[in-house]
Structures are given as C-alpha cells and as structure tokens.
Amino acid sequence: MIPIVTPAEMREIDAAAPEPVEVLIERAGAATASAALRLLGSAYGKRVLVVAGKGNNGNDGRSAARRLTTRGVRVAVVAPGDAVPSGPAVDLMIDAAYGTGFRGAWTPPSMAGVPVLAVDIPSGVDGLTGAAEPGGVLEATATITFAALKPGLVLLPGRSLCGTVHVAPIGLDCSRARAWQVEGSDVAAWVPQRVVDSHKWRHACWVVAGSPSMPGASHLCVGAALRAGCGYVRLSSPGLDRSVGAPTEAVYHPTPAAGWADALAADAGRFASLVIGPGLGRSPQGDREIARAVVATALPLVLDGDALSALGTQAGELLRLRAGATVLTPHDGEFERLAGRRPGSDRFRAARDLAAGCGAVVLLKGPTTVVADPEGRVGVSLAGDARLATAGSGDVLAGIIGALLAQGLDPWRAALAGAELHGRAGGRGPQRGLVAGDLVGLLPDVWAHLDEPAAGPARPAWSVGA
Question: Which residues of 50-62 are buried (b: 16+ CB within 10 A; e: fewer)?
Fold first, then answer.
C-alpha cells in the first residue's frame, strides 16, 4: 500500500527527520529535476520556467532549477505573480509556487499547451481535501510528491488536476501513516488461496436481500459473492417463497416477512458471513426485523442499501450491541441518514468519525472510495470510475465484500479489497453501456490480473520509486 499523510502529518514527519531540511530539499530537488527531464525527453537547449514560492516548496523548485541548468536546460525562475519572461516559448513549467499548506487563491500564469510538472501538489489544491478554486489551479501533466501521497491528490477535484503522480522517496519515515492507497498486489496478498481439502461450506455467505419490486438487487449481490470466492451462497428474500431469475448456483431459502431475524439467528451456524439490505425495501416491520437481525447474529456482516436507511442515526447504538464485525457501505445520502449530516469536503475525517461512532468499518462510496475503521485507519481505492455510476453497482460491491469476509479477511481489508476488485471490474468493462450485471462476469478476469495496473481513464498513473 502507498502511504497517504495529511499536510499536518507531513510537517511532523519532516520535523522528525534525522537530516537537516537543506538535505531534504536537495533530495526533493533532484527528484523534481529527474521528473522534469523525463517529461522533456532531452535536456540540452530546452527551456523551462520555474514558478517558485517563498517556502520549502519553492526551495525544491529552485534546487531543481540549478540541477537542470547543469544539464544544459535554459531555466528561468520567477515568483508567483511575477510576469513571465518574454521570448521563445518554454517547453515545460515547474509549478513550485505553493505546497500542501496553501490557503487562499492565486492566479497562475497562462501556460496553454505547455506541459506542467507540479511539485508535491498542484498549487491551489487543498492538500487535505482536494478542494480547488475554479481557475485558480494550473492543471498538471505530472506531479512529483515526496515520501507519501497527500489526501488532496486522491480526492476530487485535486485528483483530476494532478496528472501522472510519482511518489519519490527522500529518506523520510512514513511508517506511522494512518492512511494508504490500496494496490492490486495488496489484494492478492490478503485473499487466501483455497486449501486442498476445501469444501463449499468453508466460505459460505447468507444474503438477505430483494423484494417483489427489487429482486434484481439480490441476484446481483449473490452473483458477485459467488464470483468473489464464496463456495456456497444462500439467498433469502423475506416473505417470498422463491426469487425468479436468481443465479442458478444460489440456494434459495424462504423466510417469513415477520420473524425472519429469528430464523436467521437460529440457522446461521454454518455460515461465515452475512449480507443484509440490497433491494429489501422499506417498511416499519422490515426496519424492525433488520434491527433485530443486526443484534441477533455474531456473523461478520455487511449492511447495504435499505438496511442502512433502516438503522438511520440509531446505527451506532445498535451496532455496539453486536458481537461480530460490521461493514457499512453508504453513499453520501445514506451517510447523512446514518450520521445526521453530509460527509463534507474532508472525506477521510467523515468516514473516520462515522466508523468510530458506530464501532464499524465504513466504506464511503464516491469517485474515491474511502474505507475507515473505528481506530482511525483509512484506505482508499482509486480503481473505479464513472462507469460504476449505474443501478445495481452497489449491490455487486456488497456481495464482493460479503465473500471476502467469508474467506476470513478482517472487515477493513475486506471492504478495501472489495472496493478495489469492484473498481477494477468496472475498468475492464465497455466505456459506454456498462451495466451492473457486467461487473459480476468481469470478476474472474480481475482476479487473474491483480498484478497489473487498474484500467480506466479516470485513474491516474501512480508510481513509487527513486
């Protein structure tokens, strides 16, 4: 996983470094110069404009300028707000105007058609939230950041303004980071291989989902659980004797509309995980059954869709009565029903606060999926893109997470790995016309290519190295 630290955490990491700040600046300058040379393709005779501010971000840019000059690059260094020197067009601009701690607004120079290399973060992007003033940020072709990612690089709109991101190690210790970006290799390492004597009940999941008006939600959830590794999936739609159109491999188990929570608790012993909510619908009786089911079983549990709305702001009170682990999967509207407020711009903090308040893992859906546990650990997945904004996509995600819980992953890793698998499935689908059912069929291909970068135009190309 790639560490992510806030601007405040980065300042503490800088302060704790064993080397003087001048040494760190020279290392950052060297990394910036190397990144600039990669963008230029060749050095001698090329023209580079460096916009360098007063702080360490500007010092990084000035250090890079000195190094580029020794390589035959013609470099001009100006301060933010200064006039751009006239003369031949430049081949590259290095944006070292402001760093992650910038507040306010600035007017970047006009650089139409000129590649831009941002130092640490595009100037004007809030390092904590990714917020940016319209017209106040020069969109980068690439960003060179140091030691760790910053939240502003992974949250919109900052994520869409940073271009290709390179994380350069400069000798800082980020081992105490509390947030990370997940990669495919992490998922591959977390999910256990099936043992030679495995059987279908070893990774069994019970899905309570679907209703007369929304049977498809349950079918998508079940199909995803099967494709994500469950050996056995039981489907129950309270009050329905059968669910026409369910995947052939699912085992349908009728449960009564009234009292299904008791039936669930009485027969849960052979299962390894439980998913409640997709397409269940809302009614006073149904809401009461959901609340009872949450408390009645200790199975690792995914609560999605209507189950989240049913619990509302009482979720924390109920979930703290549970003996088992819980994953909540809200979008912004469901988050508001649970927390009583919208997530706001600091989505890391929002997910952390709800997780702590509920004693559960929270997967906050969005262009950047944020997963937090009650202790404040945060993971993000950047694999998804706008193709996932289709009906039923969340039902598929719930099924994937349920399957990963059944395979023994802890709830934070199950939710984070589920988000990455889900996003990668979307990235392998068509640019137009993707429907949720396609995601289920794409999962085996995702499993086979976890060692490759995630596909999709909305995902920046991240790299980590010297």
Answer: bbbbeebbbbbbb
- Same domain flag for 156 and 199: no
Q: For the chain, give percent helix, strand, coil, nearest 5.
A: 40, 15, 45
Give the domain-ending residue among 125, 157, 175.
175
- The Cα 113–Cα 438 span in angstroms is 38
Give yes or no for a contact between 412 and 371, defined as CB atoms under 8 angstroms apart: yes
Q: Are 125 and 158 within 8 A, CB to CB?
A: yes
Which structure tokens are listed for 98?
A: 């402001």
pLDDT tens digits for range 9-19: 999 999 999 99
Total domains, the chain? 2
Find, among 64, 16, 58, the residue nearest to 40 by Cα. Answer: 64
What residues are paired with 51 via a beta bridge? 78, 95
In a domain, 214, yes or no: yes
- Give the range of the structural domain holding residue 327, as residue numbers without chain letter: 184-451
Q: What distance in Å separates the CA atoms of residue 90 and residue 48, rounded to the nearest whole number?
A: 6
Q: Any idea which residue has 């079940």 for tokens? A: 222
Per the CB < 8 A criterion, the answer to whether 343 and 350 are in contact is yes
Q: How far apart are CA 91 and CA 102, in angstroms?
A: 26
Q: Is residue 456 part of a domain?
A: no
CATH of the domain at 44: 3.40.50.10260
Same-domain check for residues 158 and 188: no
Query: Judging by DSSP bridges, how do beta strands 369-372 and 361-364 pair with one another?
Result: antiparallel
Q: What is the pLDDT confidence band of residue 458, given thresholds at 50, 70 and 90?
A: very low
What ranges make up the beta strands (E) of 8-161?
Answer: 47-52, 74-78, 92-96, 116-119, 142-146
Answer yes or no: is 120 within a domain: yes
**Domain assignment present for 463:** no
**The domain boundary residue, chosen from 154, 175, 196:** 175
Q: What is the tens place of the pLDDT at every residue in 79-116?
A: 998 888 887 889 999 999 998 877 777 888 888 889 99
Do 355 and 328 belong to one domain?
A: yes
- Within 10 angstroms of residue 329's Cβ, the number of other Cβ atoms is 29
Q: Which residues pair with 432 in a beta bridge?
A: none
